[in-house]
Design a protein that fits this description.
Largest sheet: 6 strands, mixed
Radius of gyration: 27 Å
Shape: globular
Strand order of the largest sheet: 11-18-17-16-12-13
């Protein structure tokens, strides 16, 4: 059993403190291993377990553990002054003077906050994603951070799951390209570079398949599904050089990922030959007790360590092994785990250069260059879902504009979840961006409504019951202002056009933020309906971490833009796109459901024995379409593209050969635009049933009005294979379909044949 090599090239090509403890850089890998051997021989069991213990924050207690050699890494410690102070204890006061590794959640920026990962994945632009993470790495390392718990590469097909906002959507090919790009951005060419940040691919594995979309919940899937859908992005991240990997929280097929030897040893170590560090998720080793596979912390520590978890995050459970009978301590797994921790510290240059230059920190954050990248990332992340009668782009000569909605002038929520060291005051809101874009226009602002904050429904011993929203979730009710909806309607009536900003608070997405409903929280739907009832043109801008139920909006609103959470340059980028300085070019990285009842919904589903047909006797619903509201890969532009002349140039392809396809794309509209051309393949007959389509490549291409380009793609036939029932990777002979297309449901079609071996 093996995972195929993932094609990572989309479509066509696709002043520092110095102390005596510092040493010169090891000359080569063998020298590093000799140094590690020497340290291992000197280390006590306490010091070894210390290297495997990651603690949060630089409390006096944790710093004392550092001094004793019983804490090898810290996280949530940032700033050159703070990290240098803690590092000085490690390299000057501990017995072996092993430097600390500082980790932090640099998920979509450190101080310059970029669009959330789901948003930049929507750009289908791996070069942009690499550039974004490079900026994040420069800022984070200037603050003393050398390790990020990113990228999250979990595939998910359930938008109820709050953490989908951190990933790249539903498709394993896109997810693989995104994973590799983010790793390259974080780590650069050399991890020892002071501006490079060790990446951590997470959460291994299948965390995004949680039942019911409930975070931390059980995942029960076949081995074939695991290998074909959920594992490829991890493999791609490791191929790109990811230094570390994080085990997932969930129970996978009856065995928690933190104690899953099949994942962490058989696949990761033996099949993929990964020699990097594996860290647990927060408190996850201790949580093996709640999973029911360990009776106490000591057993939990043994289960995790022997399964392949090298470092225990936050809970200190590995320290419980100190009380174990020495004859029962698994010394080989223990030493190998310590070896991997030390190896990472050597590769990261920490033994040679443990401190951070405070002068660099003062000039690294929120630079004009960083903000320029943030603005471009936000521009490329906006998805135009609907544009009836070409309402967009809006005319800059408009005399009056109503900007309404609870997110129109909200700074904090533009940052999204996991916003690093970002600050609300750094944000340009949509209102401010529109005002700056049209200084001569009369801009009328009304919040309209507030978005209620969801609260967990955990039992409370004394507290009175909280009021319930329409979805039955406890909420906190606030007031938007004296005018409320009436004020917003009045503003819309007086304006030439209304731009309304609706969606979710940032806290409604991310970890532990699953939702049973995809409706607009609070009274936002009512606000939208009353604004539309004015009869004035309306542009709806959605800010959310997941697709929402917008069936009514799609039927009644002329223009809809999905903005996700665009980051510090939100307002400027949104104004750039709405007023035509930039043509929208992002595409959906997931299928957009019509209703929550369709979930899970994804484009690369199986045909089944009774595919969709005009009669009743097929796989479908009586009361709703089986099709998404918008398909994977979908997104509009301010121009129109025509696809033609698809040709398969390679004839019959050998199983070890190459597929060569070409097609023409022409801009037949009146504006310059960027298209995301996508290539899909379908194997008609295989040992196991195959998806109706599988993405195998894509390319962003910018065309002037009337311009036409011929695109060519070359694929290795091995990339067209699949697993047989015995989980052997095979490339079946026979006829295949191929499409070059603007989304997963359209495009021009051809066929090719793979011959026998």
């Amino acid at each position: 059993m093996r995972l195929p090599t993932v094609l990572l090239v989309p479509f066509l090509l696709l002043g520092i403190c110095r102390v005596a403890a510092q040493t010169e850089a090891p000359a080569n890998t063998a020298d590093v291993e000799r140094r590690i051997d020497s340290l291992l021989q000197q280390m006590t069991v306490e010091e070894k377990l210390g290297q495997l213990s990651l603690y949060t924050s630089a409390t006096p207690q944790n710093l004392e553990l550092v001094r004793q050699g019983r804490a090898g890494s810290l996280f949530n410690v940032t700033g050159a002054q703070n990290t240098n102070a803690a590092q000085r204890i490690a390299v000057e006061q501990s017995r072996l003077k092993i430097p600390l590794l500082f980790g932090y959640d640099v998920i979509h920026g450190y101080r310059t906050i970029f669009p959330v990962p789901m948003a930049t994945a929507s750009s289908f632009d791996p070069q942009l994603m690499e550039e974004v993470e490079r900026v994040a790495a420069r800022e984070a390392t200037a603050g003393g951070v050398k390790w990020t718990f990113a990228p999250m590469v979990d595939i998910t097909r359930d938008p109820r799951w709050g953490r989908m906002v951190e990933g790249a959507g539903e498709d394993p090919y896109l997810g693989s390209v995104v994973a590799a790009a983010r790793v390259r951005g974080f780590q650069g060419r050399d991890l020892a570079d002071p501006q490079s940040l060790a990446a951590c691919a997470k959460h291994f594995a299948a965390y995004g398949g949680a039942e019911g979309g409930r975070d931390y919940n059980t995942v029960d899937i076949s081995e074939q599904l695991l290998r074909e859908v959920y594992l490829p992005p991890f493999h791609a991240a490791l191929q790109a050089g990811a230094a570390t990997l994080m085990a997932a929280f969930e129970d996978l097929n009856g065995i928690p990922a933190t104690a899953n030897r099949h994942l962490l040893t058989e696949i990761l170590r033996r099949e993929w030959h990964f020699d990097g560090l594996v860290v647990s998720d927060y408190d996850a080793v201790h949580e093996l007790i709640a999973h029911g596979v360990a009776a106490n912390d000591q057993q939990a520590a043994l289960e995790a360590l022997t399964a392949g978890v090298d470092m225990d995050m936050a809970d200190g459970v590995y320290q419980s092994l100190l009380s174990l009978d020495p004859s029962k301590l698994p010394m080989n797994p223990l030493d190998e785990a310590v070896r991997r921790v030390l190896r990472l510290k050597f590769k990261a240059g920490l033994f040679q250069n443990p401190y951070t230059d405070p002068a660099r920190e003062r000039t690294a954050e929120l630079t004009p260059e960083n903000l320029k990248v943030a603005r471009r990332a936000a521009q490329e992340s906006l998805i135009l879902l609907k544009n009836q009668n070409d309402l967009l782009p809006l005319d800059k000569s408009l005399k009056s504009i109503a900007v309404v909605g609870p997110l129109a002038d909200d700074q904090a929520d533009q940052l999204g979840s996991w916003a690093g060291n970002g600050r609300a005051e750094d944000v340009v809101t949509p209102l401010k961006g529109i005002q700056a874009k049209l200084p001569q226009a009369r801009v009328l602002y009304a919040k309209g409504v507030d978005i209620p904050s969801f609260e967990q429904q955990a039992p409370k011993a004394v507290a009175a019951p909280a009021p319930l929203s329409a979805t039955g979730v406890a909420r906190t009710t606030t007031t938007a202002g004296p005018g409320g909806i009436a004020e917003a309607v009045h503003a819309a009536e007086k304006a030439d056009v209304t731009i309304i900003f609706l969606g979710e608070l940032a806290q409604m997405t991310g970890e532990a933020s699953s939702r049973a409903s995809l409706d607009f929280p609070g009274r936002q739907q009512e606000l939208l309906q009353q604004v539309v009832a004015t009869g004035k043109p309306v542009v709806l801008v959605l800010e959310s971490g997941r697709p929402l139920d917008i069936r009514w909006a799609n039927d009644h609103v002329a223009a809809i833009v999905q903005a996700w959470y665009p980051g510090v340059q939100a307002g400027n980028a949104i104004a750039d796109v709405l007023f035509g300085d930039v043509s929208p070019s992002a595409r959906l990285p997931m299928s957009w459901p019509r209703t929550v009842g369709q979930i899970p919904i994804y484009y690369d589903h199986k045909s089944t024995g009774r595919p969709t047909s005009p009669d009743r006797w097929h796989t479908g619903y009586l009361d709703e379409s089986s099709e998404p509201l918008f398909p994977f890969g979908y997104g509009l532009s301010y121009t129109t593209f025509r696809y033609s002349n698809l040709k398969v140039l390679s004839g019959t392809v050998a199983p070890t050969g190459e597929l060569r396809v070409q097609a023409e794309i022409e801009n037949v509209g009146r504006r310059t635009g960027t298209e995301v051309a996508q290539l899909y393949v379908h194997d008609r007959v295989a040992p196991t049933s195959r998806p109706v389509r599988e993405l195998k490549g894509f390319q962003r291409i910018t065309l002037q009005p009337g311009e036409k380009k011929t695109l060519q793609v070359t694929l290795n036939a091995n990339e067209l294979g699949s697993y047989d029932p015995e989980l052997h990777w095979v490339v079946p002979a026979g006829i295949y379909d191929v499409w070059v297309t603007p989304s997963a449901t359209k495009g021009i079609h051809g066929t090719f044949q793979i011959g026998l071996q």
